[in-house]
Amino acid sequence: MSSPDPATLTKEELVTRLQQLEREHAAFETELLSTVRELRSMKAALDEHSIVAITDPRGRITYVNDKFCAISRYAREELLGQDHRIINSRFHPREFFHELWSTISSGRVWHGEIKNRAKDGSLYWVDTTIFPFLDGTGRPVQYVAIRTDITQRKADELTLQQTAADLAEKNKELEAIVYTVSHDLRSPLVNVQGFSRQLTRACESIRATLATATDGQVPAEPLRKPVDVAIPQALRFINAGVTKMEALLAGLLQYSRLGRVALHLRPLDLNAMLGEIVAAMKFQLNEAKAEVRVEPLPRCIGDSVQTSQVFTNLLDNALKYRSPLRPLRVTVTGRVERGQVIYSFADNGLGISPQHQAKIFEIFHRLNPNDSPGEGLGLAIAQRVLERQRGRIWVESTGEGGSTFHVSLPAE
Ligand code: ADP
Q1: Are 313 and 333 in contact (CB under 8 A)?
Q2: Cα(347)–Cα(291) distance, rounded to whole angstroms?
Q3: Three-state SS across 209-220?
């Protein structure tokens, strides 16, 4: 229903109409004020909870709240008039921001996670919603970005992923160990079984001979073979098998205990440590006419007992696997690389061909089991011990002319 034309109204009617308009205006003003108050409260609540920024249609920042300044470590004046490239961490590819812009400039809401760089270089993650404010024709007039700090959640996710990957790796290792141990235990076990049967047969033959006894007289000749040959031989092999199994189990126990030994990490003087190791092996080194040269070594952080065990094993191996063609020469050098000290332990011994190099770090793996004593445990232990100290061990060798074992540990 349209209002009557004011020109046709009487003076009284006009006054009434005016009073009515004044009342409507006052009511409208009250409503407007309450809406503004409500909006202010909402903005205050938003500012309290979120990191908020507003940009113009070209992406220039026109408003940032205190939380934005706090997390980005920029002052408000440094941000206003800039675009968001000021906090770009270069983590996301170009296409990422391309997709973001094409979404919001076409009037749609964008939601995603962004990694940003603060003024001091620190990185932070924000869960972001960008809401375009549109004009009457549907064109964006400004963008409101509301963000939540998810840096901690991202770090936790990464730790979780890392832990899952480590666990999978450990599981694989464990499977490999179970396989190797069961395989290595099998051959002495088969020997023990085989020679136990030989023992049974020898007993049966003795019993049969005893059964033929007349007047308490037992013929000596048929007893000779089982008593002098079969039984001693069977006992010898059974004993050897049991000793082998015992050694394997003791090795396994030693290996499994490593994970539980408490570490005492402290700065280590490797020159002093190698001096002691060489002195302790002086006799064997002299007998082999071996020469050990230790260059000045950088200090590292490690557990002195376990690290000493690693280098003792390396020197022991250099002696065991030396070449009969030349006197043993060992050179120990060290350098610092990206926070890690890399100690290089080079010998001129038998060398290790490339296809065997990864295998020698597996538990019980030996290249020539019958040529020298050992359980194939030293390098597996060294690897485990170093891993626990944030270190590593690997080998370089062309297969002849010697091997170089590299040990890395955190620098002091
Ligand atoms: P073990 O010495 O008891 O066999 P290790 O784990 O210390 O156990 O070594 C595993 C295998 O790696 C050895 O059996 C040997 O074949 C090879 N190896 C280790 N060190 C050297 C070396 N310096 N030169 C040549 N071969 C080596």
Answers
A1: no
A2: 10
A3: HHHCCECCECCC
For 363, the token pair is: 């538990």
Q: Is residue 255 within 6 Å of ligand 1 at its C-beta?
A: no
Provide the token pair at 72.
């980005």
Cα 96 to Cα 93, 121, 123, 133, 188: the distances in Å are 6, 21, 18, 22, 62
Q: How far apart are CA 328 and CA 347, in angstroms?
A: 7
Q: Does the beta carbon of 376 lie inside 6 Å of ligand 1?
A: yes
Residue 256: predicted pLDDT: 86
- Reported residue count of the chain is 412
For β-strands 403-410 and 392-397, DSSP reports them as antiparallel
Q: DSSP label at 299? A: -
Q: Is 312 in the pocket of ligand 1 (CB under 6 A)?
A: no
The atom of ligand 1 lying closest to the CA of 322 is 24
Dihedral pair phi/psi, residue 291, rounded to 5°: -125, 130
Closest to 248 in 3D by CA, of 383, 385, 358, 369: 369
Distance 348 CA to ligand 1 centre (A): 14
pLDDT tens digits, one per residue of 358-374: 899 988 888 887 788 88
Could you tell me the distance, in angstroms and rounded to a whole number, from the CA of residue 318 to the centre of ligand 1?
A: 8
- Residue 171 clears pLDDT 80, i.e. is over it: yes
User: Mean of the per-residue pLDDT values for the chain?
Assistant: 93
What pLDDT is recorded for position 410? 97
The pLDDT of residue 173: 81
Indicate the pTM of the whole model: 0.63
For ligand 1, whether the C-beta of 313 sits within 6 Å is yes
CA distances from 91 to 42, 94, 96, 125, 399 (A): 33, 9, 10, 11, 43
Backbone angles phi, psi at 358, to 5 degrees: -75, -35
Q: Whose CA is nearest to atom 19 of ligand 1?
A: 317
| CA–CA distances in Å: residue 142 to residues 19, 53, 56, 67, 126 | 40, 10, 5, 20, 20
Residue 365 C-alpha to ligand 1 middle, in angstroms? 8
HSE-up of residue 145 (Cα within 13 Å, Cβ side): 29
